[in-house]
Amino acid sequence: MPPTGPLPFTNLEAEFLIGLTFRITLSTAIYGSQECEDLGVLKTERGWFRRASAYEEISEYSYLEYIYGFLMPYYRDTLGVENTVDELRQKNDLRSISEQLRGNPKIRHFSNRNDSLTTDEDIIWLTELLGEPNVRFYAEGGHLGNMYRPDVQAEVMSSLMDLVQ
Fold it and tell me: How far is CA 158 from CA 25, 62, 106, in A?
């Protein structure tokens, strides 16, 4: 693959790779979080040289099971936060800080209209929030992006020039 060439994936293949990456990241997050503070959820013995069986157990957890089995107990028992999953989701949504973001001239947003995680509503909301000059949605690039393209790199760098002066 040349560094400035298009990615050789169909949208379906890209979605598979994104999902796979997410699953690997989730497994790493679960393992790492339990090394920092073991909540007693995992039953498999873990050690420096004994990770395979723990990762096998971890791979059985979905994202939702991670939230209910690891994240919510940690927030409740360690941090003393009694929020519901929906409350935490709302607090982690950009809409929860929209007033701090609104019209901020230092914020730029670049993404793609054909990103499977972006809705038409998201595009309208971000454009209204940040102002049309600070928002750019490319027609293609999907969720994997298009920063490999020299023209996109140049546009991003050009849009930031007023911030370095």
Answer: 33, 41, 13
- Of the candidates 116, 123, 125, the one whose C-alpha atom is nearest the C-alpha of residue 144 is 116
- Cβ–Cβ under 8 Å, residues 123 and 113: yes
Q: Where are the alpha helices (DSSP H) in the chain?
A: 11-36, 52-58, 63-66, 72-73, 85-91, 98-101, 120-130, 150-160
Q: What is the pLDDT of residues 105-154, one digit of tens each?
A: 899 999 999 998 899 999 999 999 999 999 999 998 888 888 888 999 99
Q: Amino acid identity, residue 126?
A: L
Does residue 37 surpass a pLDDT of 80? yes
**11 and 116 Cβ atoms separated by less than 8 Å:** yes
6's tokens: 């298009």
